[in-house]
Amino acid sequence: MDVRSQISMVFHLDKCIGCHTCSVACKNIWTDRKGVEYQWWNNVETKPGTGYPTKWEDQDIYKGGWEKNNGTINLKGAGKKKGLLNIFHNPHLPVIDDYYEPFTYKYLDLIESPEMDDQPTARPVSLITGKPIDIKMGPNWDDDLSGTPDFARKDPNLQDLSPAEQEAMFQLERMAFFYLPRICNHCLNPACVASCPSGAIYKRGEDGIVLINQQVCRAWRMCVTACPYKKSYYNWHTGKSEKCILCYPRLEAGHAPACMHSCVGRIRYLGVVLYDADQIENAASADESKVVDSQLDMLLDPFDPKVIQAAKENGVPDSTIKAAQQSPTYKFVKEWGLALPLHPEFRTLPMLFYVPPLLPVMASLGKQNTSQAEKMDPIAKVWNDDWLYDTSTEDLWGTIDQARFPLKYMANLFAAGDEEKVKIVLKKLMAVRIHRRNVTVGDIAPEKVEAALKGADLEAEVAEEIYKLTSLAKFDQRFVIPPAHREQALEMLEFTGDTKGSTGFGFKEKPERGL
Amino acid sequence: MDNLFNALNNFFLIALPYIALFVFVIGSIWRYRSNGFKFSSLSSQFLEGRQLFWGSVPFHMGILFLFFGHLIAFLIPSGVLAWNAHPARLIVLEVTAFIFAIALLIGLVNLLYRRITNPRIAIVTSKMDYAIIVLLLVQVFNGIWVAYNFRWGSSWFSSVLSPYLWSIFALQPDTSAVASLPWVVKSHIVAAYLIVLLIPFSRLVHFLVPPIDYIWRPYQRVIWYWNKKEIRKAHTPWSLKRPKNN
Ligand code: SF4
Ligand code: SF4
Asked: Which residues contact B64 (CB under 8 A, 6 or more apart)?
């Protein structure tokens, strides 16, 4: 057993309101420079939708992630052979138009325009060429556009849904969508690291953050292809790739990453998990039906004396073990089994987990749709609780099975197509709600509540805990950040006098584009 | 007149190579050490991918073949001469090299065309990029001209130019054989020195850092601040091993 610690994250999708505060917080701190205007290390997409970059999940196009053939896994579009052979021209590299051409407006024209008959306008200009452009795309162009032919219906996760199922999803009355905020997953089997020919990308041993050494990156741009989540980006100006750094300078100082700190919906949780590094290869090359389970199996119980012992022998600081014991992510992922990895079939073992959203699933029932249609005024919609948001408990798990979103869709996102996995989670989420309704409103028969909890395999106390961490948790409970032991990190630096008088320990010269 | 000729010869065939080599070696090391951030191939594929294919691939294939061809003729001239002893083999070598040179030329023209016509690419093109492309274009065109008109280059390179180049490296420059070469050939030599000279000041530096070690390195890379296991042991000193970083 090779116990290591990893900073992991949980995003609770039911709570995301799609406000993009996280994206903007990140942009303001890290990517407000030339060459990275188009990069959104944190982005929020509407699902179903095509996402950013367009259709990033479709690995027939982008060739990201690992694929398994003959029992071993290989990078799909990069690696030693493919990467080096394609180094002069990478046929799978997305180009900027797959994201969008960054733009701004000539606001100054509004102020400096001479007096005219017409109102002055601020024309959009490209941030690359500076020339006027027609804006065709933006980072969240599919925001709230469920049902649209250009976006929602082209969602790669719909591929194995029958046409009838797809149609049902996009009926006007049943239309639903949810938000999917994404950052780099700081994977345990990162495809970006494996694909980098110059070895510039690495995983930090202490906390598992995946970083790109800007001094070593040589613009071979394989990581952009290899990351199946398209979370490694190419800076077209400096000729270096960049990616989410999980705000490591903030983490080292005990602060939550900017996206998490600013999250309005408080959907984000961050904490340490201990895992067994010996199992990485096995877990990454498990059968598709077992990828989720084998990934979750790697995460170790931080209270198990054997694990603690092994962790200590491996040099994991006591403070980190303690943080792992209080970790909210461990609770969500392992203890309660509520959070699942996004696209585990990419086999990078992502360390960002999602609590799948219950709302679009339970919000309406198929059988009530017809009566609703009859009742409906042709112009105005009649508000009807049954129709919109069903919390009746007549038919306990009926809602999940007749979900507005086919379970298959959720399963394609979070469980490599295994509907059962998603269903278990959704049942738990539902049971917690029924339990809480019983506590606060009390209009549900006790047997029903018991049956709900039992059906979801939950105790009332656990449901209460889940409720508390989901809804009431304060900052320190949502973010349990282990001390970074910077005293050790600083010793690593060569000579502190080198950077005396400059702004930090990063660059001694301005990071400018090479000649 | 003779004096001037001699002086020019001495400058271009003796002084220039030393200047070029000196600047190349010191300049590259300096640039690498002072600012690794500026060491990049500065790929522009992200802004434009399709045209690049018809430029970058033939260009790189061509230049790699020709670079190693020249290098081998310089390092083991006897080997090349032995290979060329048979006319059929000589023809095969010359024709192959010629094809690669044409590929290189086509690639370069495409790259130049792309840099000039695509507004996005023009933005990420420096004056040095243009200088390098034009210099390479001249050099390749010149090389093709020489190969076509002064046959068979692979043989006389090995017997005339290799000894001269060796003499440069042996610090006993001997230009007797090259001095009498036609000026087109000499200009090819001079342009080669210029290219070497410009390497540290251009994006050409990326050829000094080919990712060869990728072939044998393990796929995943994990970096620790310290060897934690050692630190935990009470009897080992705190700073037993320097970490591998940086
Ligand atoms: S999400 Fe992508 S960039 Fe981030 S660690 Fe995983 S493979 Fe690398
Ligand atoms: S800030 Fe939070 S709630 Fe808002 S979009 Fe981002 S993740 Fe969702």
From this structure: none
